[in-house]
């Protein structure tokens, strides 16, 4: 009884109330998608809003179980959870049902369950366990391999299920690593990789190499290597001129790609010698960063053409405006933007959305639930939803920072990272700023698996927070 009282007193009720409000508002929008104003029947189990009530009820029971469980249980059994969910991810490939070309669901009677939602929880717990023990360091190769295996093993299995979007979500855990000491260069490289991938779709490779070369020299300059930057520039200009002259002498046109690479290779050799003689590791890091980006530039065509499916390539091209297919690949997003735009400032009103009522937007109660908010509640409603998620994320960061235990803090940041990725990508894809990868909006999208997964993810952290003064290892 004393332990239960301490748990109740230690619960962050602000986050609990935020959760209840978001789940409630989410259900209201699911109801709006599924109901017919002319034939109102509140309890009809064939309707998604009735099933969602059942999922919500089960979630509340799950919350009670979590809050009555000792916090050390989640630490001690984190690897067990990970092993079980990994087994389920493999098993579903063989005995699962295929929905929307992805074999990622178990079906028992009329119920379906997607194990990937539990895999997010288990992976976050396992990652926190690894990083809080064994004097973990991002500069230790064995630690990096152990951590990478934990994250990329379920991703690989999920990709085999043909559910790439759900697998990519686990990469969000890398956001939490920066709080734990991961070099910011990794973040910069990731951002540059995304930018380069997009640029390769729009401009020629030699233009990208030129941009990268200028950026590289500026990075050397801003790191207070002024003399080296000037010498690099001079060497690059000279060797580019020599390379261009050789091409012209050979009787062909100038191959700007090769000429630029020759120029940067010459200046890089100078910089590498300088870094070795004067023992300047920062220059070495910049060199690795530059040539890694160059290599990535020339690999994007292969990745895009050979590793992505046709529907994935088309979605990216539509998002970048390089392909217009309003009745095909771009149909969902186009109808979603129409629905959101038609809501105006205050929306059309509850149950008054025409896009909603006439089912113009596919998957409107799941992946595209945000457009229902936009149509019926307008800009004001969508702003409130975004604000709620911002408050939730900031609250999770605040709670994570007050943990005495490394395990609880790392897990808390993992939870915040997964929520951030889901919210940013889901809302982004409904308004055309992100490719459609089929991931739900937390607490709003219809579905028992996603609601349970997000609920368990959040309330395990809230349970750990009730013991925030203890050192859990």
TrEMBL record:
It is a multi-pass membrane protein. Coiled coil: none annotated. The keyword Transmembrane applies. GO terms for biological process: cell division; regulation of cell shape. GO terms for cellular component: cell division site; plasma membrane. The chain crosses the membrane at residues 12-32, 52-68, 80-101, 151-177, 189-222, 229-247, 259-277, 284-304, 377-398, 410-437, 443-464. Its main location: membrane. Keywords: Cell shape, Membrane, Transmembrane, Transmembrane helix. One of its GO terms (molecular function) is lipid-linked peptidoglycan transporter activity. NCBIfam families: RodA_shape. This is Cell wall polymerase. It comes from Alkalitalea saponilacus.
């Amino acid at each position: 009884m004393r332990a239960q009282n301490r748990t109740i007193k230690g619960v962050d009720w602000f986050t609990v109330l935020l959760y209840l409000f978001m789940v409630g508002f989410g259900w209201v929008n699911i109801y709006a998608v599924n109901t017919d104003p002319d034939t109102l029947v509140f309890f009809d189990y064939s309707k998604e809003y009735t099933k969602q009530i059942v999922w919500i009820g089960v979630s509340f029971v799950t919350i009670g179980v979590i809050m009555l469980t000792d916090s050390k249980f989640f630490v001690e059994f984190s690897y067990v959870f990970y092993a079980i969910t990994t087994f389920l991810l493999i098993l579903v490939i063989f005995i699962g049902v295929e929905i929307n070309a992805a074999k990622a669901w178990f079906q028992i009677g009329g119920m379906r369950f997607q194990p990937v939602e539990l895999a997010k929880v288990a992976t976050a717990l396992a990652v926190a366990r690894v990083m809080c023990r064994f004097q973990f360091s991002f500069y230790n190769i064995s630690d990096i391999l152990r951590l990478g295996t934990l994250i990329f093993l379920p991703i690989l299995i999920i990709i085999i299920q043909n559910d790439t979007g759900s697998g990519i979500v686990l990469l969000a855990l890398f956001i939490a690593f920066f709080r734990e000491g991961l070099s910011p260069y990794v973040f910069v490289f990731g951002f540059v990789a995304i930018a380069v991938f997009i640029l390769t779709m729009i401009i020629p490779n030699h233009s990208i190499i030129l941009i990268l070369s200028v950026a590289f020299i500026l990075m050397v300059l801003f790191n207070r290597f002024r003399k080296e930057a000037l010498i690099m520039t001079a060497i690059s200009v000279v060797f580019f001129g020599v390379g261009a002259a050789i091409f012209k002498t050979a009787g062909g046109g100038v191959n700007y790609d090769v000429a630029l690479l020759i120029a940067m290779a010459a200046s890089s050799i100078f910089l590498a010698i300088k870094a070795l003689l004067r023992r300047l590791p920062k220059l070495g890091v910049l060199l690795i960063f530059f040539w890694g980006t160059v290599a990535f530039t020339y690999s994007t065509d292969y990745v895009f053409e050979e590793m992505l499916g046709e529907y994935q390539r088309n979605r990216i091209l539509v998002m970048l405006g390089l392909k217009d297919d309003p009745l095909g690949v771009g149909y969902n997003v186009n109808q979603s933007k129409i629905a959101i735009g038609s809501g105006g400032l205050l929306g059309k009103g509850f149950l008054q959305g025409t896009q909603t009522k006439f089912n113009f937007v596919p998957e409107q109660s799941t992946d595209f639930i945000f457009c229902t908010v936009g149509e019926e509640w307008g800009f004001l409603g969508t702003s409130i939803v975004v604000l709620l998620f911002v408050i939730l994320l900031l609250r999770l960061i605040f709670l994570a920072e007050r943990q005495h235990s490394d395990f609880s803090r790392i897990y808390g940041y993992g939870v915040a990272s997964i929520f951030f990725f889901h919210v940013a990508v889901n809302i982004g894809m409904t308004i055309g700023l992100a490719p459609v990868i089929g991931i739900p909006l937390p607490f709003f999208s219809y579905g028992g698996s996603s609601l349970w997964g997000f609920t368990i993810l959040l309330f395990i952290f809230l349970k750990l927070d009730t013991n925030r003064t203890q050192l859990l290892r």
